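Lab notebook, bench 4. The sequencing result for the construct came back, and we need a structural model before the next group meeting so we can plan mutations. Quick request posted to the team channel:

Model the 3D structure of this chain.
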Amino acid sequence: MTSSMKRTLSTHIFRSTHPEGRTRGFTLTELLIVIAIAAILAALAVPSFKTVIRNMAVRNAADDLVADIQYARSEAVRTNRTVSLTLDERTWHVRDDNNNLLREGTYSDLINAQVTALSLGFSPTGTTTLTVGSFPTGICLTAGGDPPIQRQVLLPARASSPVIQAACN
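Done. Here's the predicted structure in token form:
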């Protein structure tokens, strides 16, 4: 059987199974309609994704800050030395009593931290002292937008660990 006979035979078989005699597929108009619908759905979904991203940025910043506060306390007890955690507008630092940097954290660009300066000290027994301000104190983390998303890391006077609240006072 020659190749032209095979082509003719396969065309005949295809046409016999599809009586309209045309090949099946999508037209350009159908593809454009599907793309337009997908673009509209994506445009509707983008604002909710922005809210999710801001919410996760605030939650991660609060979790990271709490983890480093707990790390500073446990490091003070473990090494039997004084360890401090200092915060400014964009970063926090965990240092030992020889001023050696143990850990450092930075807020995301999406986050506004409402704290000017805060310094926590942890004694070898794990007790907390506040160098600036008084207990209870809180660090408010906010991601702007509509609505603004907030988390407050509350440092109570006698609690063993900080508490994360959903909104700032």
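Residues 120 and 130 are 5 Å apart (CA to CA).
Will bring this to the meeting.
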